[in-house]
Design a protein that fits this description.
Helix content: 40-55%
Radius of gyration: 20 Å
Number of helices: 5
Number of strands: 4
Shape: extended
Length: 149
């Protein structure tokens, strides 16, 4: 059995509560109820990668061109640190400095992804990136909180 409720109003919340109350409890076959923020949307994912691609094509970072995935790691570390979150890192193998672990955006909330997309846009603008036409439309969408008008 899999049932999901997206709590967008009090009516949905009441329906979720009623559903939970209707479930028979059974210690031999427990039901797991997982409450979390909604994860990123497919649209946010489709926005993320063109933006990262624009960075990878146009920005040289300390003498290196970075891949889309490397830019994602760099940006998510920036967002985490900007939000006051301690970013997980570890000493590199054989003393090569520190390795910072980026966030798995597939598990990120919609709000967090808006922060990531805005950080890409801010950073890219600072670096003189000319965002592709598809990226510009998607940036406008993200700035509206992922809503179409």
């Amino acid at each position: 059995m899999k049932t999901q409720y997206c709590l967008v109003n009090d009516n949905v919340k009441r329906n979720a509560i009623a559903f939970i109350q209707s479930i028979e409890s059974n210690p031999r076959a427990p039901i797991v109820i997982d409450i979390r923020e909604e994860t990123r949307t497919d649209r946010q994912n489709r926005l993320l990668w063109p933006l990262l691609n624009d960075l990878s094509k146009q920005v040289t970072w300390y003498g290196e061109k970075l891949s889309d995935t490397e830019w994602k790691d760099l940006i998510t570390v920036f967002v985490e640190m900007s939000n006051g979150t301690q970013q997980k890192s570890a000493p590199a193998i054989e003393g090569g400095g520190r390795v910072y672990f980026g966030v798995r955006t597939s598990k990120s909330s919609r709000k967090y992804m808006i922060d990531v997309i805005e950080a890409i846009y801010w950073f890219g603008t600072q670096q003189g990136v000319k965002f592709s036409e598809s990226s510009k439309h998607r940036i406008e969408w993200a700035q509206r909180g992922g809503k179409y008008e």
